[in-house]
Amino acid sequence: MQYHFPKAFLPDGWHDDVVLTVRDHTIEHVEVGVAQPGADVQRVAGAAIPSMTNVHSHAFQYAFAGLSEYRTAHADDFWTWRALMYNFVATLTPDEVYAIGQRLYRAMYAAGYTTVAEFHYLLHQPGGTPYDNPNEMADALIQAALEAGLRICMLPVFYQRGGFDGRPLEGGQQRFGSSHDLFLRMVDKLNSDWANHPSVRLGVALHSLRAVSIPAAQALLADVDMLLPGCPIHIHVAEQTKEVADCLAATGQRPVELLLDTFDVNERWCLIHATHLTDDEGKRVAQSGAVVGVCPTTEANLGDGVFRAEDYMQYGGNLAVGSDSHISVDACEELRLLEYAQRLTQQRRNVLCTETTSCGPWLWNWAANGGAAVTGFGPAAIQPGASAHLSLIDPGLVASVPTDRLLDHVVFHHVAGRQPVRGFTS
After folding, report:
1. Can you give the pTM of this predicted structure?
2. Structural domains of the chain, count
3. Do 209 and 333 fall within a single domain?
4. Of 195, 218, 221, 414, whose CB neighbour count within 10 A is largest?
């Protein structure tokens, strides 16, 4: 199949009249300057840009978004929000989670995402008993994503304890916990059921260092590597100052420092949030090749803090964005808020860009490349060998905005009710 785009953002920049030859959802050939494509070439209105990955999703929280915006304590914070979330999750069924996933993933695709990394910890029945099919919830979400046109990297979460002090799981948390052997059985079955699907990739997630002991995590990852060699590994880390303080008290190290000293953190790893980094930690993460997955709208909603993106960019670090709790489901809003937070804290404009690349294209490419790197679907680039899952800029904007400012306009010119970019699947 061949597709003609009036404009496409290729690795060397914008080009007009681009024809992509696609086989099995993979780009085989790119031809530029084809003003008069043949009758058998499908014309696509809009401008093609590299595909955007939502690198961090808790799908069930989409139904919780907007339900916690009231004060439950003198000083509400992440931890009071978490208690409300645990109450919400207590009775959700697989059918309800499937319905939530359907609505969420369709919204993602309509908002410019083509791929989702589902950080999946709502695993079991209330009380913690596994379903007869231990992957009942995961299968429901995979099916919902595929029906929406999204590719999905399913990341079942290993969750073992209630804190650094080893306290047992309680209440809603009991649905998250798994033994070593049960978790491996779940991963093995997911691999058996989905490994050959072209739009599904599998990895694993450690919920956090507070929820998994170091020895248990090391033993699990060693066994996972026998089942899924080289698979993505995601983890929440250093999201909250209390988490940093608790880790210091329990181990004598900060969580990112501990992670880097204990595990072979490399290109497979995605460190979710990493909000509170020292200079040394930021440099070490960048040097490791890992990706930091920031979720600016959720981090703002929860009062987490501001990721030091300017410093991390200067260290050469890899970055991706996610919508996490889905307070917002909009790739452009995540990028816009990421940049605006830097402007507010630095009191400067145009922070996350270079002398030669403006903010829009810099942010889009930074996040698109980082998300692709830790979901296993190959490069986020319009080039031979890459996937033909793309993001597509609205044709009205293509006709009215100068080409070299298209991505700046897409990211920074927000108009209520207008969605400037959507997913595209060949």
Report:
1. 0.97
2. 2
3. yes
4. 221
